[in-house]
Specification:
Blueprint (H helix, E strand, L loop, with lengths): L17 E5 L6 H13 L3 E3 L11 H11 L2 E6 L13 H9 L5 E6 L6 H11 L6 E5 L2 H18 L7 H13 L9 E9 L7 H4 L2 H13 L12 E4 L4 E4 L4 E4 L5 E6 L14 E2 H22 L7 E9 L6 E2 L1 H6 L12 E5 L5 E2 L2 H4 L1 H17 L1
Parallel strand pairs: 1-2, 1-3, 3-4, 4-5, 11-13
Antiparallel strand pairs: 6-10, 6-12, 7-8, 8-9, 9-10, 12-14, 12-15
Helix pairs in contact: 1-5, 2-3, 9-12
């Protein structure tokens, strides 16, 4: 599998990276040494559990701190899962969970027909993220050394364009929300996704290509995660911002730099209301945010199939909700005639912390991201 471009962290200087090796240690020492030799041959600094000094912190704390300090993680997976920690995961599994949203991960899997069930489950989890990981197989020490050298060299080439700037991406996402987009008197959810490293992924002619507009409209209306109303007409135009598909209560914008803005209703149809009092329903808001995130992921795949854009910052706005109560379905059903009113603010904008995520998170973590953003929106709306 070819290397996937991934953004270099801001801490990398003069091309020298801190590389953390994550694997079981018992019976894997020769493989860990081979990986270390490849890393150091290319001039990078190695971080290994074996090299951490004794201190007041536990080995688990030291290793997870090493992951957070790294610019890149090499994940070596063999037959054995490793000893289960108090978290219910092996140390290597914990390190992977710590790494996958923080730093790029290069995965190397030992060929085997005797993998432990827990290790196979771990590998299945890793492979669910293969759109964002480099992955290579190896059978012996020499194959691993060559694979690590090739992967690191490919990574260096892929990141030559420069890093993704978190603050810059956040500012671009917030600017999209402040732009001349869809405005409605009804409550609406708008997701803005800025992608980086900043570059042009669509030429002016491509933005005006009727095939692009047709493909987006088809999936937006009839796809698995539709964000537009199939019963309404859709107008497609190219503005100073980019390609816009607009309806009465919804809108999609895609810019030449791959930024995405999606607006959709925050409330279900009035006939679906669970109570006499009009309310924002928590589950409906979460569903709307999740659909927008997943559609944004599809849209990025459509315009940037080579994944030159590797990192994203999603920001969500709730507009037009005013004093509307915010309740769960159960709360609305239990008390249809009374509710606590909202703050009255007509606009709430929230982002994750940390704001920047790997692009594949829009697909594989859309549900959890939507839940977190919804919680933040509810807090803003209620205070």
């Amino acid at each position: 599998m070819a290397a996937i471009p991934l953004a270099v962290r801001p801490g990398v200087h003069n091309g020298r990276m801190k590389v953390f090796i994550s694997s079981v240690i018992g019976n894997f020492g020769a493989f860990r040494t081979a990986a270390q030799d490849s890393v150091e041959t290319l001039g990078h600094q190695i971080l290994r559990a074996e090299d951490f000094p004794a201190g007041v912190v536990t080995p688990q704390q030291a290793c997870l701190a090493g992951v957070r300090d790294a610019d890149l993680v090499l994940l070596l997976l063999g037959d054995k899962y490793g000893e289960v920690q108090t978290s219910g995961l092996s140390a290597t599994h914990e390190e992977y969970r710590e790494a996958k949203e923080r730093v790029p991960v290069l995965v190397f899997v030992q060929s085997s027909d005797t993998r432990e069930p827990a290790q196979q489950g771990f590998l299945d989890e890793v492979e669910a993220w293969t759109t964002g990981h480099f992955r290579a197989a190896f059978s012996d020490v020499n194959e691993l050394a060559k694979a690590v050298t090739r992967a690191l060299h490919g990574y260096e080439l892929s990141t030559a364009a420069g890093p993704a700037d978190t603050q810059g991406l956040l500012e671009r996402a917030e600017a999209l929300l402040a732009g001349p987009g869809h405005r409605s008197t009804a409550p609406s959810i708008t997701l803005a996704v800025a992608a980086g490293p900043e570059q042009s992924v669509l030429r002016p002619a491509e933005l005006r290509d009727v095939t692009l507009a047709r493909d987006i409209q088809r999936d937006a209306l009839f796809g698995d995660h539709a964000v537009l109303d199939s019963s309404e007409g859709t107008e497609s135009t190219v503005t100073a911002e980019g390609l816009v598909l607009q309806q009465r209560a919804g809108e999609i914008l895609i810019t030449s730099a791959g930024s995405v803005r999606i607006t959709l209703p925050a409330m279900s149809h009035p006939t679906d209301r669970l109570s006499v009092i009009s309310s924002l329903i928590d589950e409906d808001v979460t569903s709307a945010v999740a659909r927008a995130l997943t559609f944004a992921a599809w849209l990025l795949d459509r315009i940037d199939p080579l994944e030159r854009l590797t990192d994203v910052v999603p920001v969500v706005e709730l507009a037009g909700a005013g004093y509307l109560p915010w309740r769960t379905r159960a709360e609305a059903a239990a008390s249809p005639n009374s509710a606590t009113m909202g703050s009255g603010s007509d606009r709430a904008v929230v982002a994750l912390n940390p704001a920047r995520r790997h692009r594949q998170a829009l697909t594989h973590d859309a549900g959890r991201i939507a839940e977190d953003l919804t919680v933040l929106l509810r807090q803003e709306h209620s205070h």
